């Protein structure tokens, strides 16, 4: 099982990539509940420099409700994390990597078979969002 769903955006800046990701998620019924600017946090807390790196907490309310109805402890794995980060191999700074957590991990981690249909649907929708970014 893959840890995540990934795509690469070329010839784009970080802010544009983040906007495209948010729009692609919205098209599939996900909203962004949280945003963690990892780059700024590590600079502030540790005075460490790193590439642009943001974690978006994406949530599809219908799917979250279904998952919580099957296993309330699944809330510890919600929302789905989506990472937008600069590709450090590209010195131009115009390549961004987008990675979304594979929702099938919820089933794997919990062993709860009742989560399979919800995780499958979430994986399908997140996959469509990631795929749409490749088309953008």
UniProtKB/TrEMBL annotation:
Name this protein carries in UniProt: Uncharacterized conserved protein, DUF302 family
Q: InterPro entries from the xrefs? A: DUF302, TT1751-like_sf, UCP021774
The domain of life is Bacteria
Instruction: Tell me where the transmembrane regions lie.
Output: none
Q: Name one Pfam family in it.
A: DUF302
All copies of domain DUF302, residue ranges: 36-97
The family database entries (CDD domains) matched by this protein are listed as: DUF302 (cd14797)
Instruction: Tell me the SUPFAM superfamilies matching this sequence.
Output: TT1751-like (SSF103247)
């Amino acid at each position: 099982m893959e840890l995540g769903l990934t795509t690469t955006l070329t010839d784009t800046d970080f802010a544009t990539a983040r906007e495209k990701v948010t729009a692609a998620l919205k098209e599939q019924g996900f909203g962004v509940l949280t945003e963690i600017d990892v780059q700024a946090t590590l600079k502030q807390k540790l005075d460490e420099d790193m590439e642009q790196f943001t974690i978006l907490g994406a949530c599809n309310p219908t799917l979250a409700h279904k998952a919580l109805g099957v296993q309330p402890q699944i809330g510890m794995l919600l929302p789905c994390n989506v990472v937008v980060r600069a590709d450090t191999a590209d010195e131009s700074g115009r390549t961004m990597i987008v990675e979304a957590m594979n929702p099938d991990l919820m089933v794997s981690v919990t062993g709860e078979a009742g989560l399979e249909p919800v995780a499958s649907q979430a994986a399908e929708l997140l996959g469509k969002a990631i795929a749409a970014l490749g088309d953008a």
